[in-house]
Design a protein that fits this description.
The chain folds into three domains: 169 residues, Bacterial polysaccharide co-polymerase-like (2-Layer Sandwich); 186 residues; 43 residues. With 564 residues, it is of the alpha+beta class. Helix content is 70%, strand content 7%. The strands form two sheets. Strands 2-3-1-6 form a four-stranded antiparallel β-sheet. It has a two-stranded antiparallel ribbon with strand order 4-5.
């Protein structure tokens, strides 16, 4: 065996622009062929693929029309959460299968013949989108409102619109049913709880009434009331005693006034008549003046006696009144002495006349006034006596009531802790009952709102659209993608061929790889017949490929037009 030859590895020189141009010229068929094939395949697929139309509709979530402060909502979840439940029901197998098999729609007729209904439903779900719209401002800026969009794609644009219309109706109907069912269930539950709370409250009230009847007079609440009543009765007793004391003093004052009146009557009775020698104007004036002084002295003495009975002898005004009385008596005595002296002088100068006994008019008036005062004092005395008697009777009744209350207060309350616990349970039961009544009223108002469609509702904002232009396929995009894909494949194939071909292509390769100077180059001499035959074969091949490609693309376009 011969020795193995040593192989020398030589790195390729970096290509320049002329090299790339030579590559394109050498491998143009490898580049243009896949590009044209990709264009043909993409165009054929794009036109054979049936048009798909997308119908859309927008539904708006409107908030409750009546303010929450008037009718509070009883719904435990927001509308967005309930929409998820409604969407689950609508997109269920039964709901979608009803829509597919509806005679007016008759969707996926070919697919139903070769696929089970479960797969057809899944196929429809893939074509159905329900997406929320997160920007309410795009829908008019309604505060508290949001919306979502329903999209369905199908090969028939009229059926696509009908399906979206059917879904909108199902959303609206299902929302109404869910809200009514929720309100009805809430009302039923609250009514049951309300009956239970009422029964509990009635039971506790009956137990408390029985406890009060069995422990009458020994309840904690009665002890406090009895203490307050005892305090009021003691105040009443003190007021009665004060009234009795005051009335007694007034009675003593009347007794003093009556006694003074009697003394005055005796005094004036002893001086009712007077023996005079002759009547004169001076005598008459003297008598009137003496009568006035006597009346003032009598009144002053009565006032002095009243002050002594009420305030005692140490009262400062007593000395003043006594001094006034002494001055009046001194004046009266001086007047009597002066008159006696005048009478004696007159008796020496005037001849005596026959004496006369006359009744003093001022004394008569004073006696009449004293008798009238006596009648008044006696009437007032009887009234005071009767008033004191009434006060005594009231005092006796109050003392009896005080004794009863003191006896009740001294008796300790029974089972105070048990009674307090029963009252606490009753208050809690009443609070629960009031809360249930409030909730029941709110639930009933919510039901009425749902009946009047014044609660949260779903309403179509944009009606289901009738698509005019198919959404799929985008044929221009498909054609461009096929062309670019084929072109990329051709470039890859041309690159692979260039890497695989290690021959020297031009004078640059000879100079670089041999390191020898090139004196001249001899062009490649080929047989003209072979060259022409090769060119005809290439043009025949390209012509056939272009014709076949055009026929395929034209057929696909014709198929599409016939389908339309």
């Amino acid at each position: 065996m011969g020795a193995p030859q040593n192989e020398i590895g030589v790195s390729r020189r970096p290509p320049d622009i002329e090299d790339y141009i030579d590559m394109l010229r050498r491998y143009r068929s490898w580049i243009l062929g896949p590009a044209f094939a990709g264009l043909v395949v993409a165009v054929v697929v794009a036109f054979i693929w049936q048009d798909t139309y997308v119908s859309t509709a927008t539904m708006r979530i409107t908030p409750q029309q009546v303010p929450d402060r008037l009718v509070p909502s009883i719904m435990s979840s927001q509308m967005a959460e309930r929409l998820q439940e409604i969407e689950t029901v609508i997109l269920s197998h039964g709901s979608l299968s009803d829509i597919i098999q509806k005679p007016s729609l008759d969707l996926y007729k070919k697919e139903r013949q070769r696929m089970p209904m479960e797969d057809v439903v899944q196929l429809m779900k893939k074509k159905l989108d329900i997406n929320p719209i997160s920007d309410p401002g795009a829908l008019g800026g309604a505060r508290g409102a949001s919306a979502f969009q329903i999209r369905f794609s199908y090969i028939d644009r009229y059926k696509a619109q009908a399906v979206v219309r059917e879904l909108v109706a199902k959303f609206t109907e299902q929302n109404v049913n869910v809200q009514r069912a929720a309100a009805s269930a809430t009302t039923s539950f609250i009514n049951d709880e309300l009956r239970a709370a009422k029964e509990k409250m009635d039971t506790l009230e009956a137990a408390i009434i029985k406890f009060k009847v069995e422990n009458q007079g020994h309840l904690p609440e009665q002890a406090q009331a009895n203490a307050q009543a005892l305090q009021m009765e003691q105040i009443s007793l003190m007021n009665l005693q004060s009234n009795i004391s005051r009335t007694g003093e007034e009675k003593m004052l009347l007794e003093t006034q009556i006694q003074n009146n009697k003394d005055s009557q005796l005094y004036w009775s002893s001086r009712a008549t007077e023996t005079i020698v002759a009547s004169s104007p001076q005598a008459t004036a003297r008598n009137e003046r003496l009568g006035a002084l006597s009346n003032r002295i009598s009144e002053a003495k009565q006032e002095l006696a009243a002050l002594k009975n009420m305030y005692g002898d140490a009262y400062p005004e007593i000395g003043t009144h006594q001094a006034q009385i002494d001055a009046l008596e001194q004046e009266r005595g001086q007047l009597e002495k002066d008159w006696a002296a005048q009478q004696a002088a007159a008796a020496l100068n005037v001849s005596p006349t026959a004496p006369q006994t006359v009744i003093k008019p001022e004394v008569e008036r004073s006696l009449q006034e004293l008798q009238n005062n006596a009648h008044t004092y006696n009437a007032e005395m009887q009234a005071k006596i009767q008033e004191i008697e009434n006060y005594r009777n009231q005092e006796a009744q109050v003392e009896k009531r005080i004794a009863v209350l003191e006896r009740q207060i001294q008796e300790a309350p029974l089972d105070e802790q048990q009674y307090a616990a029963m009252l606490g349970d009753l208050n809690l039961a009443k609070a629960d009952y009031d809360d249930m009544v409030r909730r029941r009223n709110a639930s009933e108002m919510q039901e009425q709102l749902e009946e009047h469609k014044a609660g949260e509702n779903l309403e179509p904002l944009d009606l289901p659209s009738l698509p005019e232009v198919p959404s799929e396929p985008k044929r221009a995009a498909w054609a461009g993608a096929g062309l670019l894909g084929g072109l990329a494949l051709g470039v890859v194939l041309a690159g692979a061929q260039e890497v695989k071909n290690t021959s020297l292509k031009n004078l640059k390769d000879v100079r670089v790889y041999t390191n020898l100077p090139v004196l001249s180059s001899i062009p490649l001499l080929e047989n003209g017949l072979l060259v022409r035959r090769k060119r005809r074969l290439i043009w025949l091949t390209w012509s056939s490929a272009i014709i076949i490609g055009c026929i395929l693309m034209s057929g696909a376009m014709y198929y599409h037009m016939q389908g339309v």
